[in-house]
Design brief:
Elements: E1 4-8, H1 11-21, E2 25-29, E3 35-36, E4 44-45, E5 51-52, E6 55-56, H2 61-72, E7 76-79, H3 85-98, E8 106-107, H4 115-123, H5 130-158, H6 166-184
Parallel strand pairs: 1-2, 1-7, 7-8
Antiparallel strand pairs: 3-6, 4-5
Helix pairs in contact: 3-5
């Protein structure tokens, strides 16, 4: 009899879930992201609405092959990646990579790994939240654009190897603004009056 295929991120979590779900379920781990932007080029179509070009990560090709094979003979698919923006994107990427319809796959999330919480999540599956997937994609695409476009420009203009990132650039700006405010500070004498 075909089993329900459950895909989680962590191998440790896979073992625990398999115990909680019983013999009708086969639980396996994706070990994180299975697809990403290519390592050797931008991978984002700037002239085509910033469309990303995802590919299976080289270190995940074997894993994806095993997942695809398991999916073909499974009674159903349950995506149990972490309950956050990255987990939602991982669930979507896994579905895409193994040839499943991401809009039809069962998505389960839980905030604790207890038998009750896991079984409750499987009683109430939902669909992949594409708003969260899109949020993660926007972050990833922005990271790539900033990293590929701004870092080389900085290095060229300042003649030293520098990098710029979505977060580090904003953090640096906050530090610079604060340092300027400190240097511009001029102490002024003031008096306070307390009345009783």
């Amino acid at each position: 009899m075909a089993k329900q295929l459950v895909i989680v991120e962590s191998p440790t979590k896979a073992k625990t879930l398999e115990r909680y779900l019983g013999p009708d379920y086969s639980v396996t781990a994706s070990k994180g992201h299975v697809r990403d932007l290519p390592e050797d080029r931008m991978g984002v179509e700037l002239d085509d609405e910033f469309q990303p070009e995802y590919e299976v990560r080289p270190d995940q090709k074997e894993m994806v092959g095993r997942l695809r094979k398991s999916f073909k003979t499974a009674a159903g698919l349950w995506l149990a990646a972490d309950f956050d923006r990255e987990g939602e994107a991982i669930a979507w990427h896994v579905a895409e990579a193994i040839g499943a319809d991401p809009r039809a796959a069962n998505r389960v999330t839980f905030t604790e790994i207890t038998k009750d919480a896991v079984q409750a999540a499987f009683r109430h599956p939902r669909r992949i939240d594409f708003d969260l997937v899109n949020a993660q994609q926007a972050r990833r695409i922005l990271d790539r654009i900033v990293g590929y476009q701004l870092s080389p420009l900085l290095s060229k203009k300042l003649r030293r190897a520098l990098s710029a990132g979505r977060v580090q650039s904003v953090a640096l700006r906050l530090i610079v603004d604060r340092e300027r405010a400190i240097k511009a500070f001029q102490a002024k004498e003031y008096w306070s009056v307390d009345a009783r």
